[in-house]
Every structure is written in structure tokens, then in C-alpha cells.
Write a structure and sequence with these properties.
Strand content: under 5%
Number of strands: 0
Helix content: over 70%
Shape: flat
Distance between the termini: 145 Å
Largest sheet: none
Length: 943
């Protein structure tokens, strides 16, 4: 009975459930209480410490159900920690595998350290990210091998395989691996290991560059990595991309057969992985549909209980509970979640029934309370009394508002009445707070004012009396303030200031009495002086002194009341008499000053009209003239002097400020223009020595156009920068006009440098004293042959020159080269500059040209008998008698001459490349060679 009563406890009796679960002596009662608990900490404690195994198992099931259903990673992590401490690692792996939230699964996986649990999650988790996360935390070699062997999901099986390093493990996966893709990948890796250990027989390898081989290796690695991708669509896309890149590489170069086989094997493995993953997804869909079918009947019962309410609901829920118990069992992986949902739905129904009963009882009270509060709002009581009565009814209203659905109309009336009362209460509170803040602000202001007055060195009697009155009023008024602390602070400050001001005010009051008596004598003297002005003949002096006496009277106006009134009437009577005498003079003076004011106003208008002018020189002169004229105009009416002068000065200042700003702006522009022109000068100077004639000329013209577009610069720098730019441009264009000579000198410089290098080689062999007989040349310099060969290579690579210039330089070149060879002929033995060898080659070539010049372009005939010679001529004559024969002979003759001419030209070119010889040897040979060539060409022209 006590176990059954546990299920009748409401959700607000959690303390009772926790006490029963932990402390009840009967295991069945504890187990029933545990089935109703959802406190993770209490369930974890029971799962670890309860003496009854059934109670511990029930607590474990509850924790597992909470962990499998929650979407809060923090709560799931706490559940996993409790289960781990209780030694329930299998349930932790179930949460990591089956929870619907990926964040929860990730958080739980991060808490698992047991290799077997991690391996179970890696093999059986719902999604690839959870499997990959569990595999990443798994470092046990045996468990990695087990994952690769037993996992049905391709992604985790292949990923685990990549971390298996021993050949025994790879062999086991290749033979017994449950996943086909992993098994195939294991066989590929075994084959690669065998190939690395036992090199294949030598075979003709494709000739691939290192760059192509690196590219092929990269593509091969990408193809082999495709089996680890989880998404089959992504794998298929990447496979197509990699195969296209491989085909493009094969079109450009011949790929090594071994690489080609590996790539095809990797492609086949990727295709198999795509197929396996598609099958896996289809299987997962089938399992999900089967689970939905298995849960459908129980889900319908739970959903009906969740929606059950109204009359007859008690009987219906009893029927549904019986129906639930009669349903066939379902797999354990779904049971915990559905059972928990069923229990929650039953408890929710019981709570709804309880609230319904309470709502029925509250319906009548709602009507009564609403009417009572409406009468209270409509009454004429003061806000304070209304708030006091509302405080007595507030608790009942708060309780009944929870059951508003029992009588919606009365609840709505109650809410309106409560809102009206609370609004008035809030208004009263705001008014009181505002008044208190205003009072506090005003008192603080009074404190600051009187404290400032007390701190000043001099105060007046009037200010001191007023301050003391304000202090007295503030202290005696006792205005409401926000806090008692504020009142104490303000009162303390006011008392302190009153203690300072009181003695000082009394001193001022005593001094004021003495001052009033002292002023009587001064007032009497001022009255006498005012009376004496009645006889002053100069009205200007009388008016001025009258104003002075008026000002002095204001300074001593305080006096005892009786005597002071008499003296004031005496002073006033004399003042009126003087004013009557001077009024006409003052009127004329005012008229004159009015005319002066009109003149100055006219000058102001002229200055204001010129203030916005941009004709700086003329306007400045005109304003200076107006300023000079201003000085000649007399004074103006009193009170207008400052205003009219400030108006005139403002107009002048406006113009001269604008003029100053414009001058500053122009100076900035001049400076900027100078910078730009100096930059153009630098560019022009850089181009003045250029030899890129057309490009440099175009750039110079562009710089000249840009120069014209730049504005002016400061006059003192204008000529200098222009001369600099013009000088640079003139220098370039002068060189541009004589560019042919410059180019010629530049080209000739290369050949001249070669000549100087050769001449420098023989300088050490010449005696320093020109008058002395030349000494025997010393040994050849180090690296002489290499230096000479380099100089000859430079001569051959030098640019071509006009014939006359090149002939002169060639003569100097051959002369210098001959000096070098003549100085050390033994150093050039065996080279193409060997004098003996060169002479033989020249004589041989000369003999050949002389032979051609004698035979008329044909080979020298062999000696024949007179009969044979006659027969040969007879045959030629017969051949010439026919047209075809004549043409053939003529054609053969022409070909023979062309071949001979080509041979002579080749000989001439070869003759120029011979090394130098002494002049006594080279001279005759050159003369014979040139004579033989001329003779040959003379014969060629005749033909």
C-alpha cells in the first residue's frame, strides 16, 4: 500500500519522494520512489550506495532515461559522471549512442575514458560525428583493431584501420573485417607494405618529371583518403574531381604503371565505400521505421493521456493504464524513454485534475473578491486609505489569480481592478518619491549656496541675512526626504554653515550702522557741490560734473532714514536745476552724436559690402581708407559706441581673415605644386641618360604636358625649378637627336673593351723604359688561354657595326690578339690559336681556293691520254647538239659554279676566324688568299 501511495504523490512533494528513496526501510517503497525521481544527484547517490540491487538498477535506469532524453549538455554530463562513479559504463555509452542531441552526445563522449566504452560508441553511435569523436579519444591498439574488425559503418571502420600499424592486425581485418571497404583497404595497405619490403622486378618505367610525380602522388593520396568520407554524395563528387585531374595528368605525361594501379585500386575502394554507405543509410532508415512501428501503439496511449481532461477522465486514464500494461514488450533501447514519458503524462494528468478541483472551489471566491475590489476602486477614499485596504486583500488575490480559468469573467474583472489599484499605488509612490527627491535636491542646493557664501572672503549683509533665513526655514520645515540618513546629512551641513555665518553677519550688521552714519557727511558735501554747479558758466563741464556727482551719490546712498531723506531731497533739487540749464546743450550734443552715428553706420555698411570680396588688393586698399575715415568721425550717442565699433571691426576682420586664409591656401597650393614639379624634375633627370629612346621620348613629352597642367609655385622658386626641368629635358632630347651616334658608341664600346683587355695582357711584357731595348717576355700570365678565349667570345657576341667602323676595330683586334699569341706562342699549343697549326690550316685552305680559281669552279681534272681527251670532247659536242642535252649541260655547269661559289664564301668566313700569325707570315698568305678569291669571282662574273 505504501508503494502504491508513492505514485499518488504530487510534483510539489519532491522532498517526500527524496526522503522515501533514501531512508525507507522497504526496498519496494524505495524503488517506487526512485521511479518518480528526476534529481540527478540523488539518483546517482542511490545508484552507488543503496544496499538493494533492484533499487540500484532502478536508479540506473532512471539516470539512463534522463541522459538519453535531455538536450542539456551540462545535465547529460552530470548524469554520465554519476553513472561512471557507479561503475555503469555501459549505460554511459548508451547515452552517447542514443541521445537525440549531437551536443549532448559530444559532451558525454568527452567524459568517457574507458577504451571498451569508447569502442562501443565508435561502433554503434547514430551519427558519424559522434563515432569519429569517440574514435579520436580511443588510443588502445586492441580496441582500435576491434573497431576496424567489427564496425559496420564504413567511416569509422576505415578511420580505425588507418591507425592500425602492425601487419597482423591488417591481415586480420583483410580476412575477417565486417566492413568490406575496410577489408579492401587493409589488403591494399598490406600490398603496399610488401612492395616496400620486396621491390618489384625491374621494368621499363615511365619517364615522369619530379613535378608530375609529385602531382600524381598528391592525387593518389586524395583518392585513397576518399574512403574515410562519411557523405556518399560528397565522396562521389570528390572521386569525379580526382579522376578528372588524373586523366588530365595522363594526357600530359606517361604515368608509371605502379602509380596507375594504385590509383585504380583507390578509385575502386572509393566506389565500394559509396555503395556501402548508401546501403548503411538505407538500413538506418529501415531501422528507424521499424522503431517507429514498434513504438506506435505505446505512443498513441501516451499522446491520449497527454491530451486527456474533462468529465470521465478518471475512468478513461484507468482504462489506458490497463491497456499500457497489456501491450507487448519493446526493445530495451526504446523502453526507458517511452516508460518515462508515460509516467510523466500520468503525473501531468493528476496535476491537471488537482488544479481543476482547486479551480472549482476558487470560482465563487473570484466573483466576490472582484466585486469588492471594484467597489474599493470606485470609492472616494484617499489614495493612502485605498492602499492600506488593498494590502489586506492582496494575499487572497494572488492565490486566486492562479485559478483564473475557473471563472474567466470574474478573473478578468479582478485583473482590471488589481491593475487600477496598482496603478494608483504606483502613482502615489512616484509622487512621493519625486517630492522627496525634489526636497533633497533643493536642500542640497541650499547647502551648496550657503557653504559657498560662508567660504567666500567677503559677503554682504543682505546676502548673509537671506542665507540665515533660508537655513532656518530648511531646518524647521522638516520636509520629507528619501532616507533618514539624507536628513541627518543635510541638517548637519546646515548647522555647520549657520555656526560660521552667524558671527560674520552680526559683524556686517554693526559695520553697516557705522557706515550709514559716515555717509551722512559725504552726502552733505555732494549736495553742496551740486548746488555750486548752478553758477558754472561752461555747460559741458556742468553736465559732466553732474553725472560724476550722481555716480558718487549712488556709492554713499545708505544713511539713517531721517537724515538721509532730507539730504536726498536737497541733492535732488540742486540736480534738477543743473539739468534744466544743461538740457539744451545736451540735446545739441546728442544731435551731433546722432549724425556721427549715421556716418559710422554708413561706413559699417560699406565695410560689410566689401567683406565678401575676392579682389584682395583693391578691397584691402578700400577698407584701409574706410578705417582712416572712421578715425576722423567724432563720438556717437551714449550706449552705441561699443556696438557700432564692434560692427565695423567685425566687417574688417571678416575680410582680412578671409584674405589671410586665402593666402595660406595659395601657399599650400604653391608648396604642393612645387613638390609635384620637383618630382617631375627628378623623373626628367632620370630619363636624361636613358637609351630607351622612343619610350623615354614619350615619357618626356608626357612629363612636359603634366608640367603645363600643374599650377603656379612661389615666384622666388619658379625660375629655378623651371630651369632644372628644362635642362633635364633638353639634355635628353639633345641625346635623342644624336641617338644614332650614341648607339654606335655604345655598341663599339663592347668591342673596344675586348681590344683593351687583349692589349692589357701584353703590357707586363713591355719594358717600362721606352728607350731601352725590349726585354725577353716573361712567362705567360696565369689563365692566359682562358682569358683570351673569353675575349674572343665577347668579340663574337658583340653587336654588329657599320662596315668602316667594324673594319678599323677588327684590325686593332687582330693586331692585339697577334701580339698576345706572338708573345707566348707555346701557351697556345694545341688550341685553335696555335700559330703552327693555324699556318697549316691557312695554307691548306689557300691551296683549295687557288685550285678553284685555276679550274674555273671545277675540280682539277685528272691526267688523261690524248685519245681519251678527244673522246670526251666529242661526247660533249654531241650532247650540246640536242636541245635537251644543251639544257642539261648548261644546268650542270651552273650548279657546279654555285657550289664552288658557296665553297669560296665558306672559305672566306673560315679565313676570318683563323688565329693570328706573325706579320711576315700572315701578310703573304692574306695577299695570296685575296688574289685567289678575286680571280675566282672574276671568272664567275664572266660565266
Amino acid at each position: 500500500m505504501r508503494a502504491a501511495a508513492v505514485y499518488d504523490l504530487g510534483p510539489d512533494e519532491g522532498d517526500v519522494l527524496r526522503a522515501l528513496a533514501r531512508e525507507d526501510a522497504e526496498a519496494r517503497v524505495r524503488r517506487a520512489a526512485v521511479a518518480r525521481l528526476d534529481d540527478v544527484a540523488i539518483l546517482g547517490e542511490i545508484a552507488k550506495t543503496d544496499p538493494d540491487p533492484d533499487v540500484r538498477n532502478e536508479a540506473t535506469r532512471q539516470l539512463t532515461g534522463i541522459g538519453a532524453e535531455t538536450r542539456d549538455p551540462v545535465k547529460a554530463a552530470e548524469v554520465a559522471r554519476q553513472l561512471t562513479e557507479a561503475g555503469r559504463l555501459k549505460e554511459v555509452s548508451l547515452i552517447a549512442r542514443d541521445n537525440p542531441s549531437i551536443d549532448v552526445r559530444s559532451a558525454v563522449v568527452d567524459l568517457i575514458d574507458d577504451p571498451k566504452s569508447l569502442g562501443a560508441v565508435a561502433r554503434h553511435a547514430r551519427d558519424g560525428s559522434t563515432r569519429a569523436r569517440a574514435l579520436a579519444r580511443l588510443h588502445d591498439a586492441d580496441e582500435l583493431l576491434a573497431v576496424s574488425l567489427k564496425a559496420e559503418h564504413t567511416d569509422v571502420a576505415v578511420a580505425a584501420l588507418e591507425r592500425v600499424g602492425d601487419t597482423d592486425g591488417l591481415s586480420a581485418i583483410a580476412q575477417r573485417g565486417r566492413n568490406k571497404v575496410a577489408a579492401r583497404r587493409a589488403r591494399v595497405r598490406l600490398r603496399q607494405i610488401e612492395e616496400a619490403v620486396t621491390p618489384a622486378a625491374e621494368a621499363p618505367a615511365a619517364q615522369m618529371s619530379s613535378e608530375d610525380r609529385d602531382r600524381a602522388g598528391q592525387l593518389l593520396r586524395e583518392a585513397e583518403a576518399l574512403v574515410a568520407l562519411a557523405d556518399p554524395a560528397e565522396t562521389e563528387t570528390e572521386l569525379a574531381r580526382v579522376r578528372l585531374a588524373w586523366a588530365e595528368l595522363g594526357a600530359d605525361t606517361e604515368i608509371e604503371p605502379a602509380l596507375g594501379e594504385r590509383f585504380e585500386s583507390a578509385s575502386e575502394a572509393a566506389r565500394e565505400a559509396i555503395s556501402e554507405r548508401q546501403l548503411e543509410r538505407a538500413a538506418e532508415q529501415i531501422r528507424a521505421e521499424a522503431a517507429a512501428r514498434e513504438q506506435a501503439d505505446r505512443l498513441r496511449v501516451v499522446q491520449e493521456i497527454e491530451q486527456l481532461e474533462g468529465a470521465g477522465a478518471e475512468d478513461r486514464i484507468a482504462e489506458l493504464k490497463v491497456r499500457w500494461d497489456a501491450l507487448p514488450p519493446i526493445p530495451q533501447e526504446y523502453a526507458a524513454s517511452l516508460t518515462r514519458r508515460f509516467q510523466d503524462a500520468c503525473r501531468a494528468f493528476e496535476e491537471r485534475e488537482r488544479r481543476r478541483m482547486l479551480a472549482q472551489a476558487a470560482a465563487g471566491r473570484l466573483q466576490t473578491l472582484a466585486a469588492e475590489l471594484e467597489q474599493l476602486v470606485a470609492s472616494d477614499v484617499t489614495p493612502q486609505e485605498l492602499i492600506a485596504r488593498w494590502r489586506g486583500l492582496r494575499r487572497d488575490a494572488e492565490v486566486l489569480r492562479e485559478h483564473a480559468e475557473a471563472n474567466p469573467d470574474a478573473a478578468e474583472r479582478l485583473e482590471r481592478a488589481i491593475a487600477a489599484i496598482e496603478e494608483k499605488e504606483q502613482q502615489l509612490v512616484e509622487i512621493r518619491q519625486k517630492q522627496e527627491q525634489d526636497n533633497l535636491r533643493r536642500l542640497h542646493q541650499i547647502c551648496r549656496q550657503v557653504e559657498t557664501l560662508a567660504a567666500s572672503e567677503s559677503i554682504t549683509l543682505k546676502a548673509g541675512d537671506r542665507a540665515l533665513a533660508e537655513i532656518r526655514s530648511a531646518i524647521d520645515g522638516r520636509l520629507p526626504l528619501p532616507t533618514k540618513k539624507d536628513r541627518q546629512e543635510v541638517q548637519t551641513r546646515l548647522e555647520a554653515v549657520r555656526g560660521i555665518l552667524g558671527p560674520r553677519v552680526q559683524e556686517l550688521r554693526d559695520a553697516d550702522e557705522w557706515q550709514r552714519w559716515a555717509n551722512l557727511q559725504v552726502q552733505e558735501e555732494l549736495a553742496k557741490k551740486m548746488e555750486s554747479l548752478a553758477e558754472e558758466p561752461d555747460l559741458e563741464v556742468a553736465a559732466r560734473r553732474m553725472r560724476e556727482l550722481q555716480g558718487r551719490w549712488k556709492q554713499v546712498a545708505l544713511a539713517p532714514r531721517t537724515q538721509g531723506e532730507a539730504l536726498w531731497r536737497r541733492f535732488k533739487t540742486a540736480q534738477d536745476a543743473v539739468f534744466t540749464r544743461t538740457s539744451a546743450h545736451l540735446t545739441a550734443q546728442n544731435e551731433e552724436r546722432g549724425h556721427n552715428l549715421a556716418k559710422k553706420q554708413s561706413l559699417c555698411e560699406q565695410a560689410e559690402a566689401l567683406a565678401t570680396s575676392t579682389d584682395w588688393v583693391k578691397t584691402a586698399t578700400a577698407l584701409q581708407a574706410l578705417q582712416a575715415e572712421w578715425k576722423t568721425v567724432g563720438p556717437v550717442s551714449r550706449g552705441s559706441e561699443k556696438a557700432i565699433w564692434e560692427r565695423f571691426r567685425a566687417a574688417c576682420d571678416q575680410f582680412f581673415s578671409r584674405r589671410h586664409d586665402d593666402l595660406k591656401k595659395r601657399k599650400d597650393e604653391w608648396s604642393e605644386n612645387l613638390t609635384r614639379k620637383e618630382a617631375l624634375c627628378a623623373q626628367a633627370e632620370a630619363l636624361s641618360s636613358s637609351t630607351e629612346w622612343e619610350a623615354a621620348a614619350a615619357e618626356c613629352r608626357k612629363l612636359q604636358i603634366e608640367w603645363k597642367q600643374i599650377g603656379p609655385v612661389r615666384r622666388s622658386k619658379s625660375d629655378a625649378v623651371w630651369q632644372r626641368f628644362r635642362t633635364a629635358c633638353d639634355a635628353f632630347f639633345d641625346r635623342y637627336k644624336h641617338r644614332d651616334q650614341v648607339d654606335l658608341q655604345s655598341k663599339a664600346a663592347a668591342r673596344a673593351d675586348v681590344i683593351r683587355e687583349l692589349e692589357a695582357l701584353v703590357v707586363p711584357a713591355v719594358a717600362d723604359d721606352a728607350t731601352s731595348a725590349p726585354e725577353a717576355p716573361a712567362g705567360p700570365p696565369e689563365g692566359l688561354v682562358e682569358k683570351v678565349q673569353q675575349a674572343r667570345a665577347k668579340w663574337q657576341q658583340a653587336p654588329e657595326l657599320p662596315r668602316t667602323v667594324q673594319q678599323e676595330l677588327a684590325a686593332s683586334y687582330h693586331q692585339a690578339l697577334g701580339k698576345v699569341v706572338a708573345a707566348w706562342p707555346e701557351a697556345f699549343a694545341g688550341t685553335d690559336l696555335d700559330p703552327a697549326n693555324t699556318r697549316k690550316r691557312m695554307e691548306k685552305l689557300l691551296a683549295r681556293i687557288e685550285t678553284l680559281s685555276r679550274s674555273g669552279g671545277a675540280e682539277a681534272p685528272a691526267p688523261v691520254s690524248p685519245a681519251e681527251l678527244l673522246a670526251q670532247r666529242w661526247r660533249e659536242r654531241l650532247a650540246a647538239n640536242t636541245m635537251a642535252g644543251g639544257q642539261a649541260v648548261a644546268h650542270a655547269e651552273e650548279n657546279r659554279w654555285r657550289e664552288a661559289e658557296q665553297e669560296v664564301r665558306t672559305a672566306q668566313l673560315q679565313w676570318t676566324r683563323f688565329g693570328p700569325l706573325p706579320a711576315d707570315v700572315a701578310g703573304p698568305l692574306n695577299e695570296r688568299f685575296q688574289r685567289a678569291c678575286r680571280k675566282f669571282y672574276d671568272q664567275r662574273r664572266k660565266v
